[in-house]
Amino acid sequence: MKYLIWCLVVLLVILHQDYWQWNNATLDFGFLPRAMTYHVGISIAAAVVWWLATQFCWPETLDPAAANGEPEDAGA
């Protein structure tokens, strides 16, 4: 899964380079320029990829209290 996440990150970096959209004056939904619509889609995709990365690739040993289900202030 880790390699899939890395491939998706690289794909997002490549797709972020949208120089072909800046001269497009088309409005989506009647008010949103096409370049902005494209960036909204990229932003949503980036959020999904980051969520996948935290769900499937985050190291469990980073916070042992959270892995045991203990509250954060249990040691205080």
Chain-wise SSE layout:
Blueprint: H1 2-16, E1 27-28, E2 32-33, H2 34-56, H3 64-67
Antiparallel strand pairs: 1-2
Helix pairs in contact: 1-2
List low-pLDDT spans: none
Please tally the β strands and state the result.
2
Major beta sheet, specifics?
2 strands, antiparallel
Number of helix segments?
3
Terminal residue distance: 36 Å
What percentage of residues falls in helices of 4 or more residues? 55-70%
Question: Gyration radius, to the nearest Å?
Answer: 19 Å
Describe the structure.
- This protein has 76 residues and is mainly alpha-helical.
- It has a domain at 8-14 and 28-58.
- Helices cover 55% and strands 5% of the residues.
- The protein has three helices and two strands; from the N terminus they run H-E-E-H-H.
- Strands 1-2 form a two-stranded antiparallel sheet.
- A hairpin with a 3-residue loop joins strand 1 (27-28) and strand 2.
- Helix 1 (2-16) packs antiparallel against helix 2.
- The two termini are 36 Å apart.
Give descriptors for this structure:
76 residues; 2 strands
